[in-house]
Amino acid sequence: MRVQVFSTLRGALGGRSSVELEHVGTWSVKELLAELEKQFPGFREKLHEGVSILVNGRNIAFLQGLETDVPPDAVVSFIPPSAGG
């Protein structure tokens, strides 16, 4: 599975924009977050309100939230809110 972060969230993955995670079976987003916290301590602290989490391009807010299934071949994206004028 590929985990991507954008913009200000790169620090959550040690300055990287993406990482590959190997796992067997399907995780929930909640389980994925726990694994990311284990591999990148402080990951969850860097996620702030308004961060969108997409699994294969679909926002989990419109799926099952943190219980959304994440298959091994998924692309999971963490996108911070943007501001502009």
Highlighted features:
about 80 residues; 2 helices; alpha+beta; two-stranded antiparallel ribbon; Ubiquitin-like (UB roll); 5-stranded mixed sheet; about 20% helix
Describe the protein's architecture and organization.
The radius of gyration is 12 Å and the shape is globular. The mean pLDDT is 92. It has a single domain (2-79), classed as Ubiquitin-like (UB roll) (Roll). The protein has a five-stranded mixed beta sheet, with no helix packed on it. The chain has a two-stranded antiparallel ribbon with strand order 3-6. The protein has helices at residues 29-39, 43-46, and strands at residues 2-5, 18-20, 27-28, 52-55, 58-59, 69-70, 75-79. The chain has 85 residues and is an alpha+beta fold.
